[in-house]
Amino acid sequence: MACDFSTTETAFIEVNAPEAVNDSLELLKHIRTINEAACIYILVTHNKSFNSTHYYLAGADHCIKLPIDPLEKQALLSRTLAESHWATTTHLTLDRTRLLLCSASQKIDISYTEMIIIDALLQAPQHALSQDSIAKTLDPNIVFYDPRALEKTISRLRTKIKKYYHLELIFSVRAFGYRLRRGTIQE
């Protein structure tokens, strides 16, 4: 791969055929090993079924199945670009000692469980963890857990963050678990 991605702020990778999935995943992994801060978009332009989980686990920030209609395509891309982490000025700090999630202007109290969830996602490769991994982080000796209780805890945390900071910090990765918005929380 001849391109230097070390200073790239944003990368768009088009997946125009189901056969291009492996190549696009390799390119994504290559960019991520060189540049952790870049915002990477996966744009799926073929009309076959598509699974975004592999891309999120490899480090993609956005996986978008583009519609055929040009106006719908433009609206979807515009909305996604506007909501991207590199377009956001909100930067948060996780205070593990005082159980606070702080921005420059305000602080919100979080529970110990919520702090552990955010910290686990922050430390995870590509900031993504399965529900089972999150449950194991909360209690390493756990054998069985109620996934609905974990979903409810994360849902409350997401709502609290959205209410105070007006941003989505934790995203659901369908059929896998959750991922943390890249570049928003400083250590």
Give a quick summary of the entry.
This protein has six helices and ten strands. It is an alpha/beta fold and 187 residues long.
CATH hierarchy class name of the largest domain: Mainly Alpha
Largest sheet: 4 strands, mixed
- In total, how many beta strands? 10
CATH topology of the largest domain: Arc Repressor Mutant, subunit A
Anisotropy-based shape: globular
Account of the protein in words:
It is a single chain. 39% of the residues lie in helices and 21% in strands. The chain has 187 residues and is α/β, with parallel strands linked by helices. The protein folds into two domains: 10-86, no CATH class; 89-186, Winged helix-like DNA-binding domain superfamily/Winged helix DNA-binding domain (Arc Repressor Mutant, subunit A, Orthogonal Bundle), CATH 1.10.10.10. It has a four-stranded mixed β-sheet with strand order 6-5-4-10, with helices on one face. The protein has a three-stranded parallel β-sheet with strand order 1-2-3, with helices on both faces. A three-stranded antiparallel β-sheet has the order 7-9-8. The protein is globular, with a radius of gyration of 17 Å. The model has no long low-confidence stretch (mean pLDDT 91). Residues 84-182 bind DNA.
